[in-house]
Amino acid sequence: MFSKTCEYGIRAMIYIAQQSKNNVKVGVKDIAAGINSPEYFIAKILQELTRKGLLLSFKGPTGGFYLDEKALQCSIADIVKAIDGDKIFSGCGLGLDYCSETKPCPIHHEFKKIREDMSRMLTNTKLDEFHEKLAKDIGFLKR
Amino acid sequence: MFSKTCEYGIRAMIYIAQQSKNNVKVGVKDIAAGINSPEYFIAKILQELTRKGLLLSFKGPTGGFYLDEKALQCSIADIVKAIDGDKIFSGCGLGLDYCSETKPCPIHHEFKKIREDMSRMLTNTKLDEFHEKLAKDIGFLKR
DNA sequence: TCAATAAAATACTTTTTTGTCTTTTATTAT
DNA sequence: ATAATAAAAGACAAAAAAGTATTTTATTGA
Questions:
Q1: Which of A41, A127, B81, B95 has the fewest CB atoms below 10 angstroms from its CB?
Q2: How far is A104 from chain B (nearest CA, A)?
Q3: What confidence category does residue B135 fall into, taking pLDDT thresholds of 50, 70 and 90?
Q4: Which residue, B75, B78, B42, B46, is CA-closest to B59?
Q5: Exposure b/e, A50-70, CB count within 10 A at least 16 = b
């Protein structure tokens, strides 16, 4: 469904959202341990998300990654688009470049509904939901 | 969504299903041209599907790939499982190994419905549907 | 029988994805 | 000022996916 990069990215963003409850910035090491991902790899992913403006960061001691009120409005769909692009939202299920309503592939219409449901779900799920969630849920971002 | 290998595989199977209307075996070259895929690559994929019993083939002159009545009962889901495995049907959206009903990831329940819809759709779509379809539809398997 | 045909098997190359490591830059607290 | 900290940047390595080419085996029709 999503690339590994994207899976790690979503998990990290949810983790950071949860941790941002108490306005605390979290470091890469902490995040990697929290979501069970390779440390250097997630670092690269988070830097990319920061560059794209979905995530905030601060260098130096007491630094780390964090989300402010505005960034917490980010949806899972935003993260997926930033990392995997929008193939999953608009691409043809059979990989055809010019598949469309007027020139549909054999399973275009069946796929459409599923893509729309997924798109809606990912768009409606925002990081601030996880911000509210209790600390015990964090464990479920690992393994 | 699916790997490139899987996309080509599905397209080829649909193409063969359509061509099997008149009990004609189709060769790799014909299939590659028909679905606009790399020739050697689709050959390898079809051999794998044949080995797994989803597709029938015959060597030598007048040989090629074909589907009999039984093989035409194959669903898109069967093809996906044979090529990409069942990650898309049962795997966690965030890539967690032990995500489950009792230990769900933060978006487990939202994902569940989508996975189920997709699974149902792919399972209910069988190759013999395409077998019935008109020849003009074939163009929509390319590009 | 034998030349032609077409899939099967297999080896190989390229590209993309995933993952690791080192150096640089910004920031803080002493 | 400066030592410590943590992200940013960028180079590098390994693994997986995608794609290509060659050789072998089975089958047919002349």
A1: A41
A2: 6
A3: low
A4: B46
A5: eeeebbbbeeeeeebbbbeee
* Radius of gyration from C-alpha coordinates of chain B: 17
Q: Residue B128 is encoded by which pair of tokens?
A: 């013999």
pTM of whole model > 0.85? yes
Reported as a pLDDT band with limits 50, 70 and 90, residue A104 is very high
Confidence of residue A140 (pLDDT cuts 50, 70, 90): confident
Interface of B with A (CB under 8 A): 1-2, 4, 7-8, 10-11, 14, 76, 87-88, 91, 93-99, 103-107, 110-111, 113-114, 117-118, 121, 125, 130, 133, 137, 140-143
Chain B residues whose beta carbon lies within 8 Å of the beta carbon of residue A138: none
User: Over 70: is that where the pLDDT of B138 sits?
Assistant: no
Contacts of A51 (CB under 8 A, 6+ apart): none
Residue B75 CA to residue B68 CA, distance in Å, equals: 14
Quote the DSSP letter at residue A60. S
Q: Do B14 and A143 touch (CB under 8 A)?
A: no
A76-84 and A4-19 helices, crossing angle to 10°:
140
Closest alpha carbon to C1' of D7, residue: A59
Query: What pLDDT, on a 0 to 100 scale, did the predictor assign at position A134?
Result: 56
